[in-house]
Amino acid sequence: MKHRLFTHVAGGHHHCHALRFTRPRGLLGVGSLWGFGAYRAQLHTVSSIGKGPEEAGSHEPHTTAGSAPSFHEDSRTLALVYATVPSFYVSVAQVARQLPEAIMSPMSACALGDRRGLSAFLASHPLCFELSVLGRVAVVRRREGVAPHIPGRAGAGRSVPHASPTGRHAPAVERTATPVAPASLTPQVPAQAIEPYEWYRVARLFPDVDTEVRLTAELEGAAAQLLPEGHDLLSVCLSAPSLFTVRVESGADERGSASPTVHLRFLLRPQYAGTSRLSAEALHDKLHDPTTPRKRKRFLARELACKQNPLPYLDEGVMAHYVFDILPPDTYITRAELVRQIPKDISACLPTPLKRLWEGYPHLFSVLQVERMNDIALQRADVPLPKKRRVADVALEEVLMEIFNRYPLRRHPIVGTNLFRCLNNLPRLLQERIHTITDVEKCFVRAFPDKIEPLALPSVDDPTYEAIAALVNPLPSELAKGSGRTDLFIPFRFVGEWYEKLFQKYAKVCTKQKVDPHSTFIVDHIKRR
Fold first, then answer.
1. Is 479 contained in some domain?
2. How many domains is the chain built from?
3. Are 258 and 369 in a shared domain?
4. How far is the first Cα of the chain from the last one, in angstroms, to the nearest whole number?
């Protein structure tokens, strides 16, 4: 039988253990949390089970032929289990896998089941073994320096011998009493059954990337709200050694019983760590400098978060799955609305540029161009895309109402506007509809007399002259952007109740700026305070 020889570090020293261990698929190898090398060693197999004392080299009484030895009464079995269980905690499931089938089959015959039967056997020898529970995982370790009583008719009253490094029932490498090593834990859920999104969801439970948290019932309960049924936090953390560290330390409760404690920590991958060499104070000053560009401020906010408040959301995987969970389940949301929904301390961890989120996780997001040209909308990838409208299906009255809704609040409605000035503020589909209008004056400016009217150029001494003249006489650069179409510069303004509604909005802005809305018509002269 082949065994895997692996090492772990405890207290600054390397300890080797020869255990038969199968690493679940999906776990990282060299350099991971498990920390064992890919070395193999041949061990002596336990061949005394089911054989006579001469063949097995044992001095125990020979069992009557045709009768299988009792699991609870065979002293050789207890010696083997004692030699298999190390002095540090391992899961009962791992011990069951290390024992030969010849040992485990009598348990099945007794209808006990592998793990339950082994647990019952271990519990029946409290002088030899210490049983405990880590989260949902049953663990065990052997007691050192004891001479337990072995029940049963064969060898009653004898002591269990300590395993010798060279004995037939001993591993090839001596076991030493060491603190619990992460490699000694076996997850309850196999690694291949855990999806990556489970890693990134439970990462939100960690206060930051520097703090080690204790595995408690409250933490398990919070994780259960984020995980599929039957999956536990410890198994998830053990399945991703590049994202989590698991440290187990042995201890005792008030009654003196074994009470090992599990400590977990989230690891921030190097590619998501901060790159700025500036101090936190310098980053803070640049971030609050009014001359710093907005895009630069996003980068500075993230760098400052890396130094002062390094949350797990700095990992783009954690952030992407968080964004996915807060998206509406049946529709889309604009990028601006999304950022407003994220708490400030979490939004500081957003990547720069932001598009790295949906470009790096296309299986989570669908990107829609439904708003302004410089904005996008996001929705879950599993939500059906909205039906794409044809340009011909857009009515011109819809274009007009969108212009009304987006009319600049800092521009007096009496000076009007033109289609060229409205283009960049409209959704792309409406922009394309405007370009299909063959006669702007006839089909648009004069088509809705109850809502808008064409605007003629007033006399030079009129207070509105300068503002309206800027609409009628475009700059060469503006004319080039409009593809040379002069009809896009025909001025118009809203009339009737539509004019009154716009004026009320404009008057509120003027009141805040302490400007008389009736004495000025050129909004550009109103300065922000």
1. yes
2. 4
3. no
4. 82
Residues 298 and 248 reside in one and the same domain = no
Output the six-digit token pair for 279: 């101090």
Residue ranges in 343-496 assigned as alpha helix (H) = 344-347, 356-360, 396-405, 419-423, 428-435, 440, 465-472, 476-481
3-state secondary structure 259-309: CCEEEEEECCCHHHCCCCCCCHHHHHHHHCCCCCCHHHHHHHHHHHHHHHC
CA–CA separation, 209 vs 312, rounded Å? 6
Q: What CA–CA distance (Å, rounded) separates 107 from 120? A: 10
Considering the domain boundaries, does residue 525 fall inside one? no
Residue 136: closest CA among 192, 189, 73, 58: 189
CA distances, 379 to each of 144, 215, 326, 357, 417 (Å): 59, 35, 10, 12, 34
Task: Spell out the per-residue pLDDT of the chain, length 529, in tens.
Answer: 433 333 333 333 434 333 333 333 333 332 332 332 232 222 232 223 233 333 333 333 333 333 333 444 456 677 778 878 877 777 787 778 777 766 665 443 333 345 677 888 888 877 788 887 765 677 788 877 654 443 433 333 333 333 223 222 222 222 233 333 344 466 788 888 899 999 999 999 999 998 899 999 899 999 999 999 989 999 999 888 899 998 888 765 555 555 678 899 999 998 998 888 889 899 999 888 888 888 888 889 999 989 988 999 999 999 999 999 999 988 888 888 899 999 999 999 999 888 888 888 999 999 887 655 557 889 999 988 877 788 888 899 999 999 998 898 888 899 999 999 998 888 888 888 999 999 999 999 999 999 999 998 888 888 888 888 888 888 888 888 888 888 999 999 999 999 999 999 888 888 887 887 776 554 443 333 2
Name the maximum alpha-carbon separation found in the chain.
Answer: 125
Helices (H), 334-392: 335-341, 344-347, 356-360
Do 201 and 87 share a domain, yes or no? no
Single residue among 267, 297, 314 that ends a domain in this structure: 267
Q: Are residues 509 and 396 in the same domain?
A: yes
d(CA 114, CA 136): 17
CA dist., res. 243 & res. 318, Å (int): 11
In angstroms, the Cα distances linking 279 to 82, 293, 294, 305, 344 are: 56, 20, 20, 12, 21
> Looking at the domain assignment, is residue 343 inside a domain?
yes
475: buried, middle or exposed (CB in 10 Å: 19+, 13-18, 0-12)? exposed
Domain boundary among 101, 127, 142: 142
Which domain does 138 fall in, by range? 73-142
Can you tell me whether residue 463 is helix, strand or coil?
coil
